[in-house]
TrEMBL record:
Keyword line: ATP-binding, Ligase, Menaquinone biosynthesis, Nucleotide-binding
Record-linked Pfam families: AMP-binding, AMP-binding_C
Domain AMP-dependent synthetase/ligase: 42-353
A Gene Ontology biological process term: fatty acid metabolic process
Domain AMP-binding enzyme C-terminal: 402-465
PROSITE patterns in alphabetical order: AMP_BINDING
NCBIfam families, sorted: menE, PRK09029.1
Protein name (database record): 2-succinylbenzoate--CoA ligase
Record bears the keyword ATP-binding: yes
CDD domains, per database record: OSB_MenE-like
InterPro entries: AMP-bd_C, AMP-bd_C_sf, AMP-binding_CS, AMP-dep_synth/lig_dom, ANL_N_sf, MenE
UniProt-recorded Gene Ontology molecular function terms: ATP binding; medium-chain fatty acid-CoA ligase activity; o-succinylbenzoate-CoA ligase activity
Keyword hit for ATP-binding: yes
């Protein structure tokens, strides 16, 4: 089904640039996904503010350089970045204009980057300044100059532009449950559909300012870019440590980021009035206490369920006392078959990319198996957990996430992960690994957690011990790796249980 946007024959960048240049008004009579005003500022970063015209001039220059190097339609460019930067945004947009397929990857050891290049089947790699000192000379890369270039409406015309909504807009690596990286391919249509469906519930428009608070190499970070491109608002780049919330109205975060932002507010380090309206939380179970703390400052917190193959968020709702993930957003579909969550819709990826070959997703009668387990409750999706997070104790099935949702009800718990350990009598027993928002993991807190679990769970589901998550594992990316937690526990405490 064609998307109801003005981007069928023109890229979002060119559209908003022309609207800005002509001081035009984007009509919304037939296009409900667009707003009635064009924001003059397109992007803000440490280097300054850029209008749509200024941003387009940089993108045009880089696009011309990429084409001059011989890159063209469906060629793959690997973009390596440690964090969001002006350069990474410009290169990504330039590749979209040139019809080049981009895979954004994090700073990895040389051997891993070489593997990613081989899997992608690409010979072109650009290192953003944030990673350049560490990798210069270790892999073959291209050089780009970030200068302005004159552009005209002809640059955006169908005869000059290689942009198409059917083009592959991103290759995002995900390991899923296998641990083997796969490059998930999304089209422009997939990303726009994802942004449209969220906009209908999350209420953002051209007057908004989105903070790019998550990495571009995660689908949740790239989704922010497409929300920005959809409505022509302002994009603020998160650069360096901490969160600069000045002027920001919307963002997506993991719970720990919001916790740090609230601490920043409480400490009075913000120099301007708080403008943050809505936060979409994900990547972990959301503590109700965190949402309540945010509400005191007028921040509307939302939670949802999503996955890479569906171009980020699939369901969403305001955080409340119910442990559900909300209703299905527009342009997505969910079916539950024997507790297995199956998804479909306009946001579903076009396939997996390997060495220039696009392989379709494994489908079951038109539905994609997420490997997640769930059920419906009052028309809202309840996530029971990952199928591979299920373990058996004394003949009973235990979902790690069920216990974790109880543990984070305690005001001192920021994150909770259950790891099953081998037990000679029961097969496996649950151990809780915790990150605290306050206090220490002492005997008193453990007793409180035991009482909390016993009040919500059957006794055999209650953890046999509580341990702090090592700081080294908390600071590795936006999500804590369950597999690394399991490895750490088996190495450090194997004689304890």
């Amino acid at each position: 089904m064609p998307l109801n946007t003005p981007f069928s024959h023109q890229s979002p960048l060119c559209y908003w640039s022309e609207c800005s240049d002509n001081k035009a008004i984007a009509t919304s009579t037939s296009t409900p996904t667009l707003t009635t005003a064009v924001n003059g500022c397109a992007l803000e970063c440490n280097d300054g503010r850029y209008s749509w015209s200024e941003l387009t001039s940089y993108v045009t220059s880089v696009r011309q350089q990429l084409l001059a190097m011989g890159l063209g339609d469906n060629d793959v460019l690997m973009l390596v970045t440690a964090h969001s930067s002006l350069q990474s945004i410009i290169v990504y947009l330039a590749a979209l204009e040139a019809g080049i397929v981009v895979s954004i990857v994090p700073l990895l050891p040389k051997s891993e980057l070489v593997k990613r290049q081989a899997l992608l089947g690409c010979s072109y790699c650009y290192l953003c300044p944030s990673v350049e000192p560490e990798l210069t000379g270790s892999i073959d890369t291209i050089y780009l100059e970030f200068t302005t270039s004159d552009y005209s409406s002809e640059d955006c015309s169908s005869s000059h532009s290689h942009f198409s909504v059917s083009n592959i807009a991103s290759l995002i690596f995900t390991s899923g449950s296998t641990g083997d990286p796969k490059a998930v391919a999304h089209s422009v249509t997939n990303h726009l559909a994802s942004a449209i469906g969220l906009q209908q519930q999350f209420s953002f428009d051209a007057s908004s300012t989105w903070l790019l608070s998550l990495p571009l190499f995660h689908v949740s970070g790239l989704a922010i870019v497409w929300r920005w491109l959809l409505c022509g608002c302002c994009l603020r780049l998160k650069q360096g440590k901490g969160l600069n919330l000045q002027g920001v109205s919307h963002t997506s975060m993991v719970p720990t980021q919001l916790q740090h932002a609230l601490q920043q507010i409480e400490e009075g380090t913000l120099q301007t009035p708080l403008t943050l309206q809505r936060v979409l939380l994900g990547g972990a179970i959301i503590p109700h206490s965190l949402a309540n703390a945010a509400r005191k400052y007028g921040i509307d917190t939302w939670a949802g369920y999503g996955l890479t193959e569906m171009a980020s968020t699939v369901t969403a709702k305001r955080v409340d006392e119910a442990d559900s993930a909300g209703q299905v957003l527009a342009k997505r579909a969910i079916k539950i078959d024997n507790q297995t969550i199956l998804v479909a819709g306009e946001t579903l990826a076009v396939g997996y990319w390997q060495k220039g070959i696009l392989s379709p997703l494994a489908m079951h009668d038109g539905w994609f198996d997420t490997k997640d387990l769930g059920r419906w409750q009052n028309d809202e999706l309840v996530i029971m957990g990952r199928a591979d997070n299920l373990f058996i104790s004394g003949g009973e099935n235990i979902h790690c996430e069920e216990i974790e949702r109880v543990l984070i009800k305690h005001s001192s718990i920021m994150q909770a992960f259950i790891v099953p350990v081998v037990d000679p009598t029961f097969g496996h027993r649950p151990v809780a690994l915790l990150a605290l928002s306050q206090g220490a993991l002492n005997g008193e807190l453990k007793r409180e957690l035991n009482e909390l679990c016993l009040s919500h769970l059957q006794k055999f589901k209650c953890p046999i011990d509580y341990l702090p998550i090592p700081s080294t594992l908390l600071n590795q990316g936006i999500k804590v790796s369950r597999s690394k937690l399991k490895n750490w526990l088996s190495e450090q405490h194997i004689e304890r249980f």
